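Here is one chain, start to finish.
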Amino acid sequence: MAEDNKEKDINLNSQCPGFVTGRWNTTKPWPENLTSTAAPSSQNFTLPEGCVVLQFEDFIPWDNEDNLISAEFEQFFHRVVTGWVLPMIFLIGAPTNVMNMVVFYKLGLKERINVCLFSLSLADELYMIRNMFLYAERIFTQSTIARYGPMVRFITNNNLIGFVGFTWVSQIISAIIASERCFCIVSPLHSQTVLKTRTTAIFIATCFIVVVGLCFVVATRYRVMCVYDPISGAVTDAVGSSEFYFQHQKFIDYLDSVVYGVTIPGAALVTVTLTTIVTAVKLRQVVAERADMSSCKISAREVAVTRMLICNSILFIVCVFPISFFRLVLFFVPELNSGRRYHNTFLTALWVLDVVAYINSSFNFFIYYKMGSRYRETFKELFCKRRCLRNQTIGNTREQDLQQSIHSAVSTIKITSSSSEHRH
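Its structure:
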């Protein structure tokens, strides 16, 4: 009978070898961070169809002495971030990105920079929407829902995780914006002839299709599946790897680790940093030339736009640097990963980086409104029209009342003066 059970476990594990990842210990149960249903302890218990048997060989990732962060703290932090912090930032970023797109569309997509900024807001908006669908369950069911609820299962098992590719599209567009602005400041005449709006739009559209499309290939790696822990007798859900992943493991690992993990964020960060430094130095020279009343080929409007975009790039650098640094660390610290010795630390760092990425996608509006005069004027024209008209009407009414009061006072004074003269 024992041999039959052992053979059954081997067959179940072979259905999803990616989940039973090496060196885990069989002496401890599945952690409480996944809400599970205790399976009957009866020998007649039938394993649910499609379930795999959990096995450990060496240590438990979420419960070992090497972990810098406890499983309890990671669970608490996960709930706070996904249930409260990200939704609050979403309430700021989602409407402001829509307003950004409306304003830049109104300003005209015939201008190259407007096309870039419109596309950046679109990519940020789609990325935030994807994350909110992924974490939406946490908002309404803080205390009861498992880490992998029905929504997460649906998104994961239908490869919709691929929409996370919009965050890398956003990084590429940020690099394009920084490069475009640097070229405009360094060589303003050539920038008008070399960089065409149509070419820029085609390149950005290609990035949307290719980057997000390949991200859907990476998304085929992950599956939420039923897992049975024979030690605790619990049945729960966990993330494993698909058969498609094992058939194309090298290619998918290359995309996930090299292309999306290091190449795109690293290249974007380096590009934005270098071009921003060059732009800032050149802009200072331009401002000095204008102060000396020397001949200057860059208008005051271009100077103002450049300052705004430099601030935009600084926000990008501050937010993307820790993300790129963390992904680079993973290459040198293999144990800092899911299912390894620093499992809890890895997951906690991911929640922190999710917040940082959300901030990068949400706060551009405040830079545009504060430093962009055309943006501010167009925004007020589009979204403050009724209020402005009401304030203008109130102002006109008050002005009319004041004029009438002054006129009445003057008339009264004249009448009083006339009466005094007549008496004398």
